[in-house]
Amino acid sequence: MTTRIFAIETSCDETAAAVVADGRDLLSNQVASQIEIHRRFGGIYPEVASRQHVLAIQTVVQDALAEADLSWIGQADLLAVTHGPGLAGSLLVGVNMAKGLALASGRPLIPVNHLEGHVYSNWIRVDGRTAEDLFPTVVLIVSGGHTELVLMEGHCRYRCLGSTLDDAAGEAFDKVARLLGLGFPGGPAIQQAGESGDPQRFPLPRPLMQAQEHRFNFSFSGLKTAVLHLARRLEQEGLDPREPRLAADIAASFQAAVAEVLVAKTMDAARAFRARQICICGGVSANRVLRSLAHAQAQEMGLPLHIPPLFLCTDNAAMIAAAAHYRATYTEILDTVDGMAMDIHANLPLA
After folding, report:
1. Burial 211-226 (b: 16+ CB within 10 A, else e)
2. Mean per-residue pLDDT, 1-20
């Protein structure tokens, strides 16, 4: 029997709702982006984000139901919502909307960790492709707010191997893009600029690559600072680091350094824990250099690698619905959690 889960995601600046059947089949996926609103600030403005969620959420919910051919919320079997981590004000909008829908429909409401949602974006079937139930699986979660390396020992069973000690990779992309005058969000801006650049022109550091005590941890603050020092040195030489040709080379060199560190540590973890599969997810997993390098190295190791299609890399509710399915299937969450009593957790860990 097919189980349809309706989910809401409002952890940051995307207002999203979706319906997924049996954790894999996408029936609807609606996302209202706020990028153009926040672009003027050069980053996410939390108060503005929460207000925009309030304005958009009703329409997004209605559109997701209509796309899935559901006439009302009670036709979904289960409801799910992101309750952390994320911006507190943004999370509240989604959680309160989900509680209202649960109360109106009488359907159970499952709280979902946003990071677990990213993990299960790999299990949504698109064009016949999906991650398989091969465990252990090493998962790299890499986004604007998170960079974590996780060992997935089974469905909904995680061991944190390492994380960033300072800036997340996506945060470093945003800051370097701002330094080079490339705009926001930084990931797409750096990628676009770097396409015409020379990734070997500027030898930037690869942080923590030789530190055994931080074998599976990451650090991008020093790399970001190295780019700042490079820009200042170029200015002292009478050059403008924001000049398009020069900015392209800096962007390409920075992007190569980040991708090399992320992929090297992920492959190292896969070898160390005898992984049967590698998954990469989160907004930064949309980066073409990262995807290409990861596919090449996974192929050399003879390991299957799954990275979601671009529309599932960034925040969306389909991944929340998928995660809720596996929570409902492999844990006792439906017996132990009162969805109406749930609260938000802005710093909620995955493991």
Report:
1. eeeebbbbbbebbbeb
2. 95
Task: Please give the torsion angle defined by the CA atoms of residues 44, 252, 121 and 46, in that order, rounded to the nearest 10 degrees.
Answer: 0
**Which residues share a beta bridge with 306?**
279
160 and 292 belong to one structural domain: yes
- Phi then psi for residue 10, to 5 deg, are -145, 45
Does residue 319 share a domain with residue 248? no
pLDDT band at 144 (very low <50, low <70, confident <90, very high): confident
Domain that holds residue 284: 134-307
**Model confidence, pTM:** 0.96
Same domain, residue pair 298 and 331: no
Query: Which backbone phi and psi does 137 adopt, to 5 degrees?
Result: -115, 130
- Alpha-carbon distance of 138 to 161, in angstroms, equals 9
Predicted local distance difference test score (pLDDT) of residue 18 = 98
Tracing tokens 């997924």 back to the chain, one arrives at 20
Same domain, 141 and 289: yes
- The candidate with the shortest Cα–Cα distance to 117, out of 14, 264, 236, is 14
Dihedral (CA of 67, 133, 267, 119) sign: positive
Residues 254 and 156 in one domain: yes
Same domain as 108, residue 80: yes
Sign of the torsion formed by the C-alpha atoms of 51, 311, 79 and 105: positive
